[in-house]
Amino acid sequence: MSSAMTATTGADVTVTPAPATGPIVLGIASGASALAGLAHYAAIPAHRAEWPAAALLFTVVGAFQVLWPVLVRVHPRRALWWTALAVNVGLLALWTLSRTTGMPFGPEAGEPEHIGVLDTIASASELIVVAALLVRPHLLSRATRPAESPAD
Predict the structure, then answer these.
(1) Which of 9, 26, 37, 65 is 20 to 30 A removed from 58 (C-alpha atoms)?
(2) Which of 100, 94, 95, 71 is nearest to 83 (CA)?
(3) Which residue has the higher pLDDT, 141 or 40?
């Protein structure tokens, strides 16, 4: 028998309390996500002039990163956890590509972009989000699997 306490709700779902460090890690991930989103919003005007599609991407990404901390606290679902992980890893990969070989499409295709303050803030924040999510991936396991059913 494990030392962790579990309870079964009326919906027949196992609820396991998160470790005490859970709120701290989630707070770090939330703050870093919001900061990355704000950095993306700050970069929209410069990108709108160059390429409107990039400005749209920055708008959508910024909205997700700013809203994710609220969503994950109001509706703590594993899907939100994994979506944030995938989005932030994808953004880090895109940033690395755009700074090394350049984007394969767009008005400046194949030309590496310069590293700036805003994109450094956004990328460092995304890296913090990814690290926090990987350190504690089970924090949102509140209602993820049905309780064991008794043997027939």
Answers:
(1) 26
(2) 71
(3) 40
Cα separations in angstroms, 107 against 52, 89, 149:
11, 24, 58
pLDDT tens column, 36-70: 999 999 999 998 988 999 999 999 999 999 999 99
Q: Which amino acid is at 39?
A: A
Q: Are the C-beta atoms of 18 and 151 separated by less than 8 Å?
A: no
In three-state secondary structure terms, 14 is strand
| 18 vs 11: CA distance, rounded Å | 19
Q: What's the token pair of residue 71?
A: 């969503």
CB-count burial class (<10 Å; 0-12, 13-18, 19+) for 139: buried
Q: Would you state the pLDDT for residue 136?
A: 73
CA distance 54 to 39: 14
Q: Which residue has the tokens 């990355």?
A: 36
